[in-house]
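Following the same procedure, backbone shapes were mapped to integers, yielding the entry below.
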Amino acid sequence: MHHSEPFRSLFTEFWRLSELFKSVSLEVVNRGGIIRGIHNHGIRQAPHRFKAKFADAMGRRYYEKVRFISVYMDCNPQTRQQVQQLLASDENVLRQTHLKARSILDQASELSWRKNPFLKEVLEEIKAEEEEAQGATAKEGQEEEEEEDIVSVF
């Protein structure tokens, strides 16, 4: 699971960020999940102007530059909901997005041959082998007919 949040303030104190992500990590680990990584992408231009629910100490409510941080974790849906609630309750989090990270194993576990590249490859190999076998039997059948013709000529 990939998780990303833009933060309210450009100058959010380091200790607030670390405390927030310590509590998120502790919540995930205590509920049997795994934190794969936490990445600070730095301060970036937001795709659109973000509006906070409440104004900050300086009276600002709209933000065009925000700090993006991603958390990569494996957890069950109940833990994900708890993390969402934890982040929603923090005043410095402007937005939170939860995405399912895709991996090569997701493709391998797909049962539909149209979506699974590994099954497609195996089915193509089987089809090619069947075509070769049919071609070989057709060729043998032609040779037998030729032999019969030859036998009938003598």
